[in-house]
Amino acid sequence: MSELPLAGVRVVSLAINLPGPAAAARLTTLGAEVTKVEPPSGDPLAFGGPDYYTRLTKGQEIVTLNLKDEADLDVLWTLLADTDLLVTSSRPSALARLGLDWSTLHARLPQLCQVAIVGHPGEAAEVAGHDLTYQAGVGTLQPPHMPTVLIADLGGAERAVADGVAALVQRGRTGEGVHREVALSDVAEDMSQPVRNRLTTAEGFLGGALPAYGIYSTASGFIAVAALEGHFWQNLTEQLGVEGSRSDLEAVFTTRTADEWEVWAREHDLPIAAVRSPQPADAKD
Q: Which Gene3D superfamilies match (predicted)?
């Protein structure tokens, strides 16, 4: 078995809630040695989603420190002395009060890299927010429904990993630690581009305007049809014996159940899947 890409890389994460733990989990998967530092009150994620929290912290060392206590803060500095990458998700003012602002970190530990996950970029980093408000600001919500996918948090976690690895690569060239800021509002903005550019609106290429790409009712349940490429579309219409209008597809798809169509599609190398409701994570283990 080959060595994992981040084997030997030491990470300390002070980030609670979802983006930080998700980023730390990905870094762990890539082989990094992750120490997760939590306040005495714990990580809210452990209370809101205990099973999810357990999955995201698997393989990590969890240390409880009260960073407002001088002795515990000294313990953190001892940890950071042997750390390659620090992940934070506090506002800059909160880090500064603890003496963990980037200028102080870099002065004391010039080889340490940091990824600072914040809500908004630059001078707006002090503005309060969460995934819900970031999505609200870029138009990806459909009121009154709550979002089922936390695109800013999870997209932000992936970006934090990418920026963290990029910082380590740059440090490898220069020998100097690197600071990277990941603003979740920026991530939400980027994730909203398909709808803001009308790719996924009702009249858009991936929003239902094409019969080849849409959701159809069946004899039981719904299916997602994604026959975008010409060879898939030709194969689908030939196998179904239809010309390819939306009404043609709507009629023929009512003749079988969603599960039956999924099996049929795999037999014919077609991108069709039954639409399923979310299942508890442990149901997949």
A: Crotonobetainyl-coa:carnitine coa-transferase, domain 1 (3.40.50.10540), formyl-coa transferase, domain 3 (3.30.1540.10)
